[in-house]
Design goal:
Strand content: under 5%
Largest sheet: none
Number of strands: 0
Radius of gyration: 21 Å
Order of helices and strands: HHHHHHHHHHHHH
Low-confidence stretches: 1-5, 120-196, 210-253
Number of helices: 13
Shape: elongated
Number of domains: 2
Distance between the termini: 33 Å
Mean pLDDT: 59
Structural class: mainly alpha
DNA sequence: AATGTGTTCAACCGCTAGCGT
DNA sequence: AACGCTAGCGGTTGAACACAT
């Protein structure tokens, strides 16, 4: 889009970037990634922002090891759907397609190694014999009892923004330790904050501070997508929405930037 | 303690479906 | 119908970490 590829950052995200992204996703919802990428000042593509959000920052994500039940489900669902990772992920709330894909790769490698070792002794009772095109596992009660989420439905990752905020708040109040701990790993260099825990807290605090409250009240009943529709329907948005965004948000951006560097 | 090897997982890339014009 | 744009998907890569020697 507007920015040329040479100025774009690549590689691991810093805590500061995470913080910014979370903040702007909260402001505008998790839909307009290119816009968020531009407006936030992050030197990242919209694509990269989306990926970071979906795979790492999304408040609904579970972190940590797969439970045996989840492992079984992945195997079963893979037997049913093949490498349709996003489809499989929709059946496992809190797990991303990337996570499942990675898990499967590891799993398959292990399986392959095991197979090598036990060179075609008795056939394994596991699911490894189910090819992606196989129908062997299709009438599985576990899968069939799962809620059916079809393509037109709201994606798990699509939190909107107001919903997300409530999740953030909930996150602050309890658990999700794995999520927070693992996120801290991203930036060992940053001493100021202790992983996502503090990011969520700071965002929470920032937004509760009236002086820097976003234009769109996160506590209101207006979904961010609607807020966005409202924004985009106005002339200032049509005539250079990026400039508007930068102006409007520069203050807030500076505020949380300074918090990080304190 | 140093080095090698294996494992995990975040992030990138290329492609495609879907939507608006 | 054709085109352009964007979000989303699946495959792949490589850095960081864990464990073995």
């Amino acid at each position: 889009m507007g920015q040329d590829d040479e100025t774009m950052r690549k590689g691991p995200w810093t805590e500061h970037e995470d913080f910014q992204l979370v903040f702007y996703v909260h402001m505008f919802g998790d839909r307009r990634w290119d816009f968020i990428a531009n407006v936030s000042g992050l030197k990242r593509t919209g694509k990269s922002c989306r990926l970071r959000w979906v795979n790492y920052l999304h408040p609904g994500l579970k972190r940590g090891k797969m439970t045996p039940h989840e492992e079984r489900l992945v195997l079963e669902l893979h037997a049913k759907f093949g490498n349709r990772w996003s489809k499989i992920a929709r059946k496992l709330p809190g797990r991303t397609d990337n996570e499942i894909k990675n898990y499967w790769r590891t799993h398959m490698r292990k399986k392959a190694q095991e197979k090598k070792r036990t060179t075609c002794r008795s056939p394994s009772p596991s699911f490894s014999h189910c090819s992606s095109s196989s129908s062997i596992c299709t009438s599985n009660p576990t899968i069939d009892s799962m809620p059916k989420i079809e393509t037109k439905e709201r994606s798990f990752y699509d939190t909107g923004g107001v919903d997300m905020f409530s999740v953030i708040k909930a996150k602050n109040n309890n658990n999700n330790k794995d999520f927070k701990n693992s996120s801290a790993r991203v930036s060992d260099t940053s001493e100021g904050l202790d992983g996502m825990d503090d990011i969520w807290k700071d965002i929470d605090n920032l937004l509760e501070d009236d002086s820097i409250k976003p234009v769109f009240d996160p506590y209101s009943e207006i979904a961010p997508s609607l807020a966005w529709d409202y924004c985009s329907s106005t002339s200032w948005m049509l005539n250079g929405q990026e400039e508007f965004g930068k102006d409007m948000l520069s203050l807030t951006s500076q505020q949380f930037s300074s918090r990080l560097t304190d």
